[in-house]
Amino acid sequence: QVRLVESGGGLVQAGGSLRLSCAASGRIFSTYVMGWFRQAPGKEREFVAAVTWSGGSTYYADSVKGRFTISRDNAENTVYLQMSSLKPEDTAVYYCAVDRSPYPESRRSYPAAYDYWGQGTQVTVSS
């Protein structure tokens, strides 16, 4: 069992930055993949970014490439999402998730592939 707790959300103006954190507790294996997803009102949950727990390979949605950076601190069991150049369309509830199966890589962007989820943190970007 893995427990995930997100933090760092808030209200920011367009062009600003925020850093989200996801603290994980429980048994984290090196084969796990940590992901960030987001869900805006009336929309489906969508993939944002993912990182492998061991090797640090990263994956990004096209909509956030060059603006968001995912990283992990294995010693602290924490995954971060550094968000810069924020846009109003980035407004959503952001969720952290764990996928226990590292392969195939194509599963990274599918919410159904993830086994554990946090409660979410709200990010609001004003124009």
Q: What's the main sheet like?
A: 7 strands, mixed
**Order of helical and strand elements:** EEEEEEEEEEE
Helix content bin: under 10%
* Total number of helices: 0
- Strand elements, count: 11
Structural class: mainly beta
Arithmetic mean pLDDT = 94
User: Which residues sit in consecutive blocks of at least 5 with pLDDT less than 50?
Assistant: none
Question: Can you give a write-up of this model?
Answer:
The chain is an all-beta fold and 127 residues long. The protein has strands at residues 2-7, 10-13, 18-26, 33-39, 46-52, 58-60, 68-73, 78-83, 92-99, 116-117, 121-126. The strands form 2 sheets. Strands 2, 4, 5, 6, 9, 10 and 11 form a 7-stranded mixed sheet that branches. Strands 1-3-8-7 form a 4-stranded antiparallel sheet, with no helix packed on it. The protein is globular.
Q: What's the short story on this structure?
A:
This protein has 127 residues and is mostly beta strands. It is 0% helix and 50% strand.
Summary keywords:
0% helix; four-stranded antiparallel β-sheet; seven-stranded mixed β-sheet; 127 residues; globular; mainly beta
What is the topological layout?
Layout: E1 2-7, E2 10-13, E3 18-26, E4 33-39, E5 46-52, E6 58-60, E7 68-73, E8 78-83, E9 92-99, E10 116-117, E11 121-126
Parallel strand pairs: 2-11
Antiparallel strand pairs: 1-3, 3-8, 4-5, 4-9, 5-6, 7-8, 9-10, 9-11
